[in-house]
Amino acid sequence: MQGGAGRTPEAIVVGGGFAGLSAATLLAERGVRVLLLEARPYLGGRARSWVDPQTGSTVDNGQHLFLGCYRDTLRFLDRLGSADRLNLQPRLSVPFVEPGGAVSVFALPPLPVFSWSLLTGLMRFPGLAFRERLGLLRVAREVHRRSRRASPAAADELDDLSVSSWLRALGQSARAEERLWHPLATAALNEDPGRASAALFLPVLRELFLRGAGGSRLGLPLVGLTDLYADPAAHYLRARGSEVRLRAQVRGLMFERGRCAGVLLSDGARVPAPDVIVAVPPGELLEMLTPEVASEPFFARCSRLETSPIVSIYLWFGSAITDLPLAGLF
């Protein structure tokens, strides 16, 4: 099988989701001729959009917020020329709607020093008593302390703690967890805070608390996710002599002399390439491996990884219920 422009690919990327498209376009930017293989009839994986046939609305299969600290993601969109389809706030501002309809806002004011802005914002966090707001500063201080004294041992220590356990150890009230920390952890880690590792939550907080005002601002796509990155990525690849193949299911990886040398497709075609990137969920990867490779310690650990499903619910109302672009609900 030939790659773009009738030539054998210099690299194969398996999987046309966010990770696969990011990897493929970065290679293409560096002059590598890529063959991207996606089993489904569309790109985007679990982050795509479609048009609802009844309403005509463009619907994402999961609403995704972006943060200013997503530096690699923003570089990816810049590469595609679609960064202007993402609306990034000038500064973090999140309105919260109370059960009675009252609206309060958590915002970081534009002060000369970001640490002052963060301190002021946390001390004004809505719905918490003064003592609880003071407690928020303990988390910020701990994030700063651990960032200055980072070590593998410290990371292992947090890995044995859930997010909830770590927050309780830092004296966070149940209401502070419910209103701030748990929604943030769930959104960032896609896992219940009672199960998610504190070691994974720490880098999230480090980016939010220590990277300046730009890192904490929120971004909402102005278009569906497919138009934001999937279609632009396909155009980017093809314009640079690479190839995108849909409905191309990889059945297995080919190995020669201890390294991956290409892929075997479900139709029996063998596609050699000097480099292969597999950007699919761990379970799908394991199905592509030979028994010998699958028994290697790294891949054996992959078999123990668990998944965490996402359920998105879209509701259409007869009239507008708010003019807010986004809101947190208490």
Structure notes:
- It is globular, with a radius of gyration of 23 Å.
- Helix 4 (130-148) packs across helix 8.
- The longest helix has 19 residues, at 130-148.
- Helices cover 40% and strands 18% of the residues.
- The chain has helices spanning 18-29, 71-80, 114-123, 130-148, 152-159, 163-169, 174-189, 198-210, 213-216, 225-239, 282-288, 291-294, 297-302, and strands at residues 11-14, 34-37, 49-51, 58-60, 66-67, 86-88, 93-97, 103-107, 218-221, 243-245, 250-256, 259-265, 270-272, 276-278, 328-329.
- The N and C termini lie far apart (56 Å).
- The protein contains 13 helices and 15 strands.
- A 4-stranded parallel β-sheet has the order 10-2-1-14, covered by helices on one side. A 3-stranded antiparallel β-sheet has the order 5-9-6, with no helix packed on it. It has a 3-stranded mixed β-sheet with strand order 8-7-15, with no helix packed on it.
- By secondary structure, it is an alpha/beta fold.
- Strand 1, helix 1 (18-29) and strand 2 form a beta-alpha-beta unit.
- Residues 1-5 have low confidence and may be disordered.
- It folds into 2 domains: 4-50 and 224-295, FAD/NAD(P)-binding domain, CATH 3.50.50.60; 90-216 and 312-329, no CATH class.
Helical residue percent band: 25-40%
Widest β-sheet, arrangement of strands: 10-2-1-14
* Number of separate strands: 15
* Distance between the amino and carboxyl termini: 56 Å
Main β sheet profile: 4 strands, parallel
What pattern of helices and strands is seen along the backbone? EHEEEEHEEEHHHHHHHEHEEEEEHHHE
**Uncertain residue ranges:** 1-5
Mean of pLDDT:
91
Evaluate the radius of gyration: 23 Å
Number of helical regions: 13
Number of structural units classed as domains: 2
Structural class: alpha/beta
Q: Which range does the strand content fall in?
A: 15-25%
